[in-house]
Amino acid sequence: MKIGLLTSGGDCPGLNAVIRGAVLEGIIEHGDEFVGFRDGWRGVVERDYFPITRHDVRGLSKTGGTILGSSRTNPFEGEFGGPDNIQWLMDREGIDVIVAIGGEGTLTAARRLYDEGGIKVLGVPKTIDNDLAATDYSFGFDTAVQIATEAIDRLRTTADSHGRCMVLEVMGRHVGWIALHSGMAGGAHAILIPEQPQSIDQIVEWVLQVRERGRAPLVVVAEGFTLPEMTEAHSTKGLDAFNRPRLGGIADVLAPLIEERTGIESRATVLGHIQRGGEPTAYDRVLATRLGMAVVKAAHREEWGQMVTLRGTDIKTVSIHEATGSLNTVPQERYDEAKVLFG
Ligand code: F6P
Questions:
Q1: DSSP classification of residue 248
Q2: Which of 16, 141, 237, 267 would suit a FRET pair with 27, their CA atoms being 20 to 30 Å apart?
Q3: Which ipTM score applies to this complex?
């Protein structure tokens, strides 16, 4: 069998481990051949690809990033986009299946290619945000949480030295899993996530409670969190909650507000892409490797239109439909559990 691999969307620690797992499973167990498309769907629609050998994946599971490159190209666009062109390319190159390793956008595109054009695709879920439905955890999430937790630990000592309030912004555009887990692990005094809007009055109350107990308050906020006071206009016009020009992320809005309302000197830290770079944790390497091996097994079972997924501790396959269309948000009970630890 000839298998085409691509990595698409924001990169994620563990992508290379998926590639290695797939290639080793395929070559050793089935005598497969592999090609890698460069920069996600761009490599498909611009016909930019190269053979991947066993030698190419040596020592790869510990490395960050993706040897294939990534982009947010839509496979339905461009000169050679769309199912007919892609099928033509697959026929010409003898490619039996395209394995798309990506998040919501990538998997939605893969699903459409399968539904609308009968393209043989398989999916591997990828997101540091852990926001994909139909998988219990995605690789990259554990690494991001580890990095964010280390940042909280480091902020705590400098916060204590100066008696300051620290506001750490972590990734999570639509869901707050990284904030929730790192905040719990690092002992944050408030965790703010997109699923749970909190007023500035509530945040100030949490911060003041911490100060009354003689501690330096530590707030972890997911980038997608908004204050109810912030209207659509605040985001679209780049204004903060006081209609002032908004320069940075939500942490840069919150820290000055907290300082104004509490009188506690406050600082914002935006962790940014550090959460996505560097080596994956051992957990993510193992999960990613298993998913890579499993997707090749699924190809040999001809389970087109499916995605490999983590269910409990087992790797299963589900329809890509199940993984797209809705997000894996933080449930109320998980947030309530974390809230007990605030203050
Ligand atoms: O979806 C993963 C993610 O890391 C989000 O948390 C974040 O909002 C986004 O990607 C950043 O994307 P980019 O790298 O394109 O700035």
A1: S
A2: 141
A3: 0.94
End-to-end CA distance of the chain: 57
Q: Sign of dihedral through CA atoms 192, 193, 199, 202?
A: negative
- pLDDT digits 0-9 by tens, 290-313: 999 999 999 999 999 999 999 999
Four-CA torsion 181, 185, 187, 188, nearest 10 degrees: -30
Amino acid, single-letter form, for residue 263? G
Ligand 1: centre distance to CA 7 (Å):
15
| Ligand 1 center–CA 84 separation, angstroms | 31
Could you report the per-residue pLDDT of 139-195, keeping only the tens digit for each?
A: 999 999 999 999 999 999 999 999 999 999 999 999 999 999 999 999 999 999 999
Nearest atom in ligand 1 to the alpha carbon of residue 276 is: 4
Residue nearest to atom 14 of ligand 1 (CA): 10
User: What letter represents residue 155's amino acid?
Assistant: L
CATH 3.40.50.450, the chain: domain bounds = 2-139+280-324
CATH architecture for the domain at 2-139+280-324: 3-Layer(aba) Sandwich (3.40)
Q: Say if residues 228 and 211 touch (Cβ distance below 8 Å).
A: no
Fold of 141-276: Rossmann fold (3.40.50)
State whether the Cα torsion 235-334-283-307 is positive or negative. Answer: negative
Question: Which one from 32, 129, 142, 240 is the annotated catalytic residue?
Answer: 129
Type of residue at 180: L
Specify the pTM: 0.94
